[in-house]
């Protein structure tokens, strides 16, 4: 997998996590689950930033 494909895949996962947060009221996520999603998003965003340098 090349660098651009990896960045694309990471961005797709970030988008899925954002959607999960939008749906969190409907799904009934706990605060802990929401925090886990936010932590994962921060981690992925940091990876994307590093890869794009």
UniProtKB/TrEMBL annotation:
Source superkingdom: Bacteria
Protein's name according to its UniProt entry: Uncharacterized protein
Organism: Rhabdobacter roseus
Lineage, uppermost ranks: Bacteria, Pseudomonadati, Bacteroidota, Cytophagia, Cytophagales
């Amino acid at each position: 997998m090349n660098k651009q494909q990896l960045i694309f895949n990471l961005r797709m996962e970030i988008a899925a996590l954002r959607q999960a947060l939008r749906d969190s009221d409907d799904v009934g996520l706990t605060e802990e689950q929401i925090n886990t999603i936010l932590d994962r998003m921060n981690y992925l965003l940091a990876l994307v930033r590093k890869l794009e340098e």
